[in-house]
């Protein structure tokens, strides 16, 4: 039995016939588990038209009405979080407990957005001039869109739409075509929560659907999360079409371990952050920077831990790491194992050995030692369970390495030296920093975003920057006559 995933437009599943479809896989078996409709330009038009029609009424819904829908959505998300986690695992491959973790982090953004009445307070200044008041109001933009990656099919969309919708916008989501079903479950929950039809829509597809959104005259803002080449393309294309845009890209996150660090803590952190979700996290640690003489002792501890890790199907409770998302992606990730050896690195743990049986997209945790910055495994974002170890002599050398990298999403330092940690936090050219914390994903009330090639645009996701992104400010200057009149004055208005 295979499933069929279609668009969600105007509060219900789409009833049209798609001209193109894609396959959806179960990555643990390698078997096609369903098909997903790919939207044409006119299908995207239909979704944007529904969102546009829903906008005036939703914009004018009171803050309390909007917050109440969000509270109901939050309750339903909690009720069905296990089911949502299973849907994610079945198409992405990550273990169910990890998928539940992503739902929980997305839920936090919904909870943040429940406070929208407070977040949308503007400013007010009385008597900016005699008997003249000035105030600012935050207003929604209209139809906004989110284009999201495969690796967090629930959490990343939830960085966007709870806040966009709470601010009074209407939303069109274009999730990854590799794991499209989580978005449909979310759409059903919105409908059950009482969100008016057309406020939240989903179109599936590929570049055709994305380009149609980027070029659509009625789309006012674009939020994107995905790889850096596509993020750059989205940023340039959306901006050229006059849209507000935030485009979060790829990553190469370094974890620096200083000689005075707690090595058991650092080894646990490197394994958790390197191999959790098979390394398919934008905040995964992919480069371990060992400041000598720490490397040998640290690697022994990591190897001990890795040897016991259980790779297996995401829905098997004994599995700690699932398969990769597609066969092509697994093959590409595995190709770095061969190229790194050819280029002079050492395969300390070879993840091609001891794979689970069957045709799943398997690769076990891999540790590559003696990596240098000129190697492909260092230069590229591998996005798999591959941890590269670069040995350096000093703290300064470690800092220089992190800063020279084109990406700037996340980084971490492990040390017991407060001064070193503080200098790292102060100087490093990276957007999200962990101190003895390997995956420093900001809480919902802070904002998520990297620097350099990890983000195009100036707004990070969720938190107050999310509210800023999904609203525009109107400044009003008002005078109620009472009973003095200023008379004719052609001079530029000044206060007095
Ligand atoms: P991707 O860039 O291939 O796809 C992301 C989205 O863009 C998908 O919806 C896809 O359909 C669409 N897309 C793909 N090719 C396109 C094209 N040529 N034109 C228009 N649209 C296109 O990314 P992915 O493989 O789904 O996700 C993994 C990537 O996402 C990694 O690079 C990872 O680091 C990154 N990521 C970044 C963050 C972050 O916060 N910075 C978070 C999660 C994932």
Highlighted features:
single chain, 496 residues, alpha/beta, Aldehyde Dehydrogenase, Chain A, domain 1, Aldehyde Dehydrogenase, Chain A, domain 2, 2 domains, seven-stranded mixed sheet, six-stranded mixed sheet, binds nicotinamide-adenine-dinucleotide
Short description:
The chain is an alpha/beta fold. Helix content is 39%, strand content 23%.
Give the helices and strands, then pairings:
Layout: E1 3-5, E2 8-9, E3 12-13, E4 20-26, E5 31-38, H1 41-60, H2 63-79, H3 81-92, H4 96-113, H5 116-119, E6 124-129, E7 132-140, E8 143-147, H6 155-166, E9 170-174, H7 181-193, E10 200-202, H8 207-215, E11 219-225, H9 228-240, E12 244-248, E13 253-257, H10 263-275, E14 285-291, H11 295-307, H12 327-342, E15 346-349, E16 366-369, H13 376-379, E17 386-392, H14 395-404, E18 407-408, E19 410-414, H15 418-427, E20 432-435, E21 451-452, E22 455-456, H16 463-469, E23 471-479
Parallel strand pairs: 1-5, 8-9, 8-11, 9-10, 11-12, 13-14, 13-19, 14-17, 16-17, 19-20
Antiparallel strand pairs: 2-3, 4-5, 6-7, 7-23, 12-22, 15-16, 18-21
Helix pairs in contact: 1-8, 2-4, 2-7, 3-4, 3-7, 4-6, 6-16, 10-11
The structure holds nicotinamide-adenine-dinucleotide.
Nicotinamide-adenine-dinucleotide binds next to helix 8.
Ranges where pLDDT stays below 50 over 5 or more residues in a row are none
Number of strand segments: 23
Number of helices: 16
Largest sheet descriptor: 7 strands, mixed
Distance between the termini: 76 Å
Oligomer: single chain
Briefly note the structural class of the backbone.
Answer: alpha/beta
Protein name: methylmalonate-semialdehyde dehydrogenase (CoA acylating)
Enzyme class: oxidoreductase
Keywords: NAD, Oxidoreductase
Pfam families: Aldedh
């Amino acid at each position: 039995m295979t499933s069929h995933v279609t668009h969600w437009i105007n509060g219900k599943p789409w009833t049209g016939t798609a001209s193109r479809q894609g396959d959806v896989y179960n990555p643990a078996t390698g078997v096609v588990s369903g098909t997903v409709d790919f939207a044409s330009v006119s299908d995207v038009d239909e979704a944007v038209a529904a969102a546009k029609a829903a906008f005036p009424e939703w914009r004018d819904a009171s803050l309390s009405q909007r917050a109440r829908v969000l509270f109901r959505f939050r309750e339903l998300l909690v009720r069905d979080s296990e089911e949502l986690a299973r849907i994610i695992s079945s198409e992405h491959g990550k273990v169910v407990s990890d998928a539940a973790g992503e739902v929980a982090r997305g839920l936090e953004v919904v909870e943040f957005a429940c406070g929208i009445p407070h977040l949308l307070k503007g400013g007010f200044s009385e008597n900016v001039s005699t008997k003249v008041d000035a105030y600012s109001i935050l207003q929604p933009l209209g139809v906004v869109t989110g284009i999201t990656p495969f690796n967090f099919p629930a959490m990343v969309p939830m960085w966007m739409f709870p806040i966009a919708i709470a601010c009074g916008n209407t939303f069109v989501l274009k999730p990854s075509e590799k794991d499209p079903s989580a978005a449909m479950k979310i759409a059903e929950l919105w409908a059950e929560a009482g969100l008016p039809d057309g406020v939240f829509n989903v179109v599936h597809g590929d570049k055709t659907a994305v380009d149609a959104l980027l070029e659509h005259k009625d789309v006012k803002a674009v939020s994107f999360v995905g790889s850096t080449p596509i993020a750059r393309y989205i940023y340039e294309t959306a901006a050229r079409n006059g849209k507000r845009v935030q485009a979060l890209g790829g990553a190469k996150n370094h974890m620096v371990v200083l000689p005075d660090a707690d090595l058991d803590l650092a080894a646990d952190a490197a394994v958790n952050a390197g191999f959790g979700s098979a390394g398919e996290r934008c905040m995964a640690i992919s480069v371990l920077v060992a400041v000598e003489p720490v490397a040998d002792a640290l690697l022994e501890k990591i190897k001990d831990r890795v040897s016991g890790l259980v790779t297996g199907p995401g829905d098997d409770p004994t599995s700690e790491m699932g398969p990769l998302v597609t066969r092509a992606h697994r093959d590409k990730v595995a190709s770095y194992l061969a190229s790194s050896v050819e280029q002079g690195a050492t395969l300390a743990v070879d993840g091609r050995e001891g794979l689970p049986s069957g045709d799943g997209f398997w690769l076990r945790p891999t540790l590559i030692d003696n990596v240098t910055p000129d190697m492909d495994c260092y230069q590229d974002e591998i996005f798999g369970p591959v941890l590269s170890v670069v040995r350096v002599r000093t703290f300064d050398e470690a800092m220089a390495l992190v800063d020279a990298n084109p990406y700037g999403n996340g980084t971490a330092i492990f040390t017991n030296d407060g001064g070193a940690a503080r200098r790292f936090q102060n100087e490093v050219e990276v957007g999200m920093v962990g101190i003895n914390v390997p995956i420093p994903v900001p809480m919902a009330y802070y904002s998520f975003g990297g620097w350099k090639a990890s983000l195009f645009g100036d707004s990070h996701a969720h938190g107050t920057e999310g509210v800023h992104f999904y609203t525009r400010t109107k400044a009003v200057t008002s005078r109620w006559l009472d009973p003095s009149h200023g008379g004719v004055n052609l001079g530029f208005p000044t206060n007095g």
